[in-house]
Amino acid sequence: MTNTINLREMQVNQTGTIRSVRATGELGRRIRDMGLVPNTEIRIVGRAPLKDPVALRLLDFTITLRNNEADFITVEPTGE
Amino acid sequence: MTATITAALAGNPNCGKTTLFNALTGARQHVGNYPGVTVERRSGNVKTDTASLNVVDLPGTYSLTAYSPEELVARDFIVDERPQVVINVLDATSLERNLYLTIQFMELGAPMVLALNMMDAVKKQGKTIDTDKLSTLLGFPVVETVARTGLGKNALVQHAVAFARQKEKSWQPLHISYGPVLDPILNEMEEMIRANGFLDQRFPSRWIALKYLEEDEQVLKLGGGSGSKTHQQLKIIADKAKEKCFTTLEVGPEAVIADFRYGHIASMMKQGVVKGDTTHQRRHLSDKIDRVVTDQFFGPIIMLATLYGIFYITFPIGEIPMGWVEAFFEWLTNAATAIIPESLLQSLVVDGIIGGVGGVMGFVPLIMVMFMAITILEDLGYMARMAYMMDRVLRMFGLHGASLMPFIISGGIPGGCAVPGVMAARTLRSPKEKLATILTAPFMNCGAKVPVFLLLSAAFFPDNAARVMFGITIISWVVALLVAKLLRTTVIKGESTPFVMELPPYRIPTMKGVLIHTWERAWQYMKKAGTVILGISILIWAAMTFPGLPDESAGTFQAQRTAAEATLAAATTDQQRSALEQELMGINNMEAQAALKYSVAGRVGSAFEPVSKLAGFDWRTNIALLGGFAAKEVIVSSLGTAYSMGDVDPEASEGLGARLANDPNWSRATAMSLMIFVLLYAPCFVTVAVIGREASWGWAGFSVVFNTGLAFTLSVIVYHIM
What confidence tens digit (pLDDT) does each residue in B374-428 have? Predict the structure, then answer.
């Protein structure tokens, strides 16, 4: 994993593959329940008008996360 | 006819589970609460030729952890009530994630039938799902459904009945591999659990082991409470496992477990369950809509327009049935007046019961229209977008994006009602933010407070009435947000709950669903009006009627009246006659005022006067405010009685306004102070009752005391600085 960045730093429309999810406890559980686990492909679909939360697309659905929750997720960018 | 089969309907939020439930059971549903929590429990019956099913709609969840009441309820239901079959509804367009919950049900060993819902959307995406293969892989019947049209529902019921009969009493928990690190540990724990018979009356043994590794609060508590040695031993193993996971895999056991569950699903999928194109047309459409609807610039504008639109629509549409309801109560009043001879009983029935309940029932049509609009927004998927856009702002005050809707409904745009507002806070999945929302939503400018502001601003600020009204609305928002912040940093302190939320694709709501949900919410409100409001109305009527004037003063008024009547009879010109009629009415009003002052309400009002004077309120205002605790609608009419204006129509209160404006005891400061007090003081009784049910009676009491204290403090300050 040479080139991973924090999910918070991703731009709208950028795609990537999740490499690690370091959240624990309830947040960790909720993130994983939604299918955000390592090796999942994601694409940033947008940010709320005040830049937070962020909306991301997984294979078949869209979820939203606050920036401080996105901090626990590292991504290897794959495009754009 | 055999015994009734209990079937639990389970699935993720937004998977179409409720729509399927409505399609299966129709409108014959029972709605209640699960014991001890405010999670709705819905059930309904389905009859076939050979069987009768009792279908229980479990709350929508993504998982079966112990973090939210919804998840606990779903889990406890499966474990404790052992339904003969679990109908697991899946959104077939996102099969993998939906199967995550399925796997967890399988680990509990529940017999299941899968409903692959939204198959129409799957076909539109150009995909096919090999249901036979999926059925073989999972070992359960799999049925394709389209809940919106009811397609597949009969096959689903047949499969459920057949499977329930075949599988009766044999629960087979699924064992999946959790990899080289955890598997040996799980085996060791499982053996220990089985050897000691630890909690295994209730749960499968491997499941208990998993929950110890996941540090599941409920299971740990049960284990600790059992007093068994096994609990400590399991905890030691679990702690070691945690260390091992962190050193070898750099994440905790719960993350490892989740990864392997998804891995298990992925390996099934790889065997060719889903075929075809994986471009997603429906999502493309939703994405396109979202690009505009949640845009930085257009998003907020569209949101404001939508909210404004709801109120703009609600009133004109609601007014029509509201007219019918009012006409009905007017007819009832006339009928009661005609049937019952003039007496205390007549006064009780007409003024107390019909007047009180009728006043509240008049709001039902408005509330129904507003609920319908809100249900449509919810089913459409727009509500989630609003929460997404507003979250950043509301979070600064310790609230959640989803707090917006309860505020709006409660009167964030003037004219709402806190009763449905507080109930709408149910959609909040985070307990602390939900409580803060419930406690602050009643500060909003609800429809019952509006007449008071209209009266006072027109009378005391005739040139700036509109600006005053706008200012009041701003004040309500500022106070609600600041109090929320205060509560969240003191009594409801704590980390905010994760926001992680799904933005479901936009869907056109079904007529049936909208009607069922609207009716249910309105019915809850009407039941309250029939019970609580009825009691309170009688109480207030009694307080304002008893004790009656002592004979001598009643005699004085009677004498005056007889004299006036005699002169009236002798009057010759129309002019004289109308002057005398005026005088006669004046005498009646004077008597009403004297009687009111003499009554319990009047005495209580007078007793509070020394304190309320600090904010500029005299005994008459106090009576109105006490009445307003029952329902804010009462304030203007009580002021009318207390100021001898006879019956005052809240919609046309110019006479009362002029009277107050000319009263030497009233000034702009009094008016301003009263407006602040009415805006912020104790929620009306129905709202308090709803808070009691949605939160707790302790918090309901808190809101009465705290809000009144806050309102009084601010009123005194306003009264003195103006």
Answer: 788 888 989 889 999 999 999 999 999 989 889 988 888 777 788 888 988 887 8
Do residue A48 and residue B388 have CB atoms under 8 angstroms apart?
yes
- Token output for B473: 């609305």
N- to C-terminal Cα distance for chain B? 77
Is B251's CB within 8 Å of A22's CB?
Answer: yes
Cα-Cα-Cα-Cα dihedral sign, residues B60, B65, B70, B74:
positive
Whether B142 and B114 have beta carbons less than 8 Å apart is answered as yes
Residue B174 and residue B109 in contact, taking contact as beta carbons nearer than 8 Å? yes
Q: Which CATH class is domain A5-79?
A: mainly beta
ipTM of the complex: 0.93
Q: Is A1 on the interface with B (CB under 8 A)?
A: no
Contact flag A64-B287 (C-beta cutoff 8 Å): no
> Which of B65, B262, B391 lies at the smallest CB-CB distance from A53?
B391
Residues B605 and B620: their CA atoms lie apart, in Å, by: 7
Q: Which residues pair with B586 in a beta bridge?
A: none
Burial class (CB in 10 A: 0-12, 13-18, 19+), B555: exposed
Report the residue of chain A nearest B400, measured CA to CA: A66
Give contacts of A 17-56 with B, CB under 8 A: 20-22, 24, 26-35, 37-38, 45-46, 48-53, 55
One-letter identity of residue B168: E
For domain B179-276, say whether CATH 1.10.472 is its number: no
Please tell me the class of the B5-166 domain. alpha beta
Helix (H, G, I), strand (E, B) or coil at B6: strand
Q: Taking chain A, what is the end-to-end CA distance rounded to the nearest angstrom?
A: 18
| Cα–Cα dist B715/B660, whole Å | 18
pLDDT in tens, B186-236: 999 999 999 998 887 788 999 999 999 999 989 999 999 888 889 999 999
Residues of A in contact with B502 (CB under 8 A): 34, 61-64
Q: Do B62 and A22 touch (CB under 8 A)?
A: no
HSE at residue B134, side-chain half, CA atoms within 13 A, is: 25
CB-CB contact of B99 with B75 (8 Å): no
